Amino acid sequence: SQTIHQWPATLVQPVGSPLSLECTVEGTSNPNLYWYRQAAGRGLQLLFYSVGIGQISSEVPQNLSASRPQDRQFILSSKKLLLSDSGFYLCAWSIGTGDSYTFGSGTRLTVV
Amino acid sequence: AQSVAQPEDQVNVAEGNPLTVKCTYSVSGNPYLFWYVQYPNRGLQFLLKYITGDNVVKGSYGFEAEFNKSQTSFHLKKPSALVSDSALYFCAVRHPFNTDKLIFGTGTRLQVFP
User: pLDDT confidence of A28, banded at 50, 70, 90?
Assistant: First the structure.
């Protein structure tokens, strides 16, 4: 069966420090992969999505970047965190037909 | 612009009463519509989806939703609410042109009181 792993679950980082959040998917090949951010426990904002290795689409300008070094691995990064980067980050995957999306359990990032 | 709206920030309902969480959409073509639920500090869980076929779709935990094309709505319903249904509910629509993307509403917090 397909599963999605996201870690860490919580993270507290100082302003100006780097960030690396990892998401991996098991049990499927060539998934579409997504990073969403949820601020203040409400709306979801699509940050990045990827339809294949090395293919990254950015939805909003920001302090973050994403990479897909392997088919089932999606990484969210920052060189220097800002206070405004705090939030709940969700990874998700779907198959290309777009009728089924599965979310990871999320990472709560607090920048202090 | 393609969008989905959830007009209520919060819905309060007494346990045992029916509940409705509203969602309207604005997209071109035939929409793929979804409902997800989020419990505190957790990821989103899939409830149900409409792609084609019967306008009423049944999902997890006794929820159902009705697709109404004329009103461009996809309201989530349950005949008898449980306290454990209290959570944040998101309506979403697949982007009609860039089908790799899912557009979410802002979420509605459902509070069921005992």
Answer: confident
